[in-house]
Amino acid sequence: MNTDNQAIVREIGRYIDKPIVLVGLMGTGKTRIGRALAAMLGLEFVDSDAEIEKAAGLSVCDIFDRFGEADFRDGERRVIRRLLDGGVCVIATGGGAMITEETASAVWAESVSVWVKAEMPVMLERTSRNNKRPLLNQGDPESILKDMMEKRYPIYEQANVTVDSCNGPVDIVLNEALEKLCDYLSLQTAKAG
Ligand code: S3P
Question: Do the Cβ atoms of 180 and 161 come closer than 8 Å?
């Protein structure tokens, strides 16, 4: 860790009193960035999809196949509710989590939210690495993602902080996230007086 980062990490540690929640479309790197951020801040990292899979004993694809999207969303809502109650940690959410109004309201009110945003080629490349995203297996991934951008960007835009994700080394996005989180938290603390 360089000295600038050390100071930033100390500053964030001083102010943070809620979970940090990463939101954004599939393939933007929420899990990768979330894990790196948690390691840097010395916090626990949890991924909502992994928690849903653990609770159900099934993969996300199997849950969609056997029970459908509505059941998956309900499980997702419950899991994120539980994770938000678990104290200060870093939570990566599935791309569709914020379309559930109850989840979105809880995340905006009870966390420091980070929108992880990436260009289309990045999302396409990352999501093409495996077949684990049932909604992208239903047609042309680019059109599906474009449609999701239209519907979901107005929701993600409400996050406290936005970071640009790329396919390069995770440190680039990590540093941006650390700086923006530090600025946001200092400002909030100053406002609170
Ligand atoms: C989904 C995103 C996925 C997963 C599920 C549905 C979505 O998570 O929750 O396949 O609706 O965007 P990632 O964003 O982690 O890929």
Answer: yes
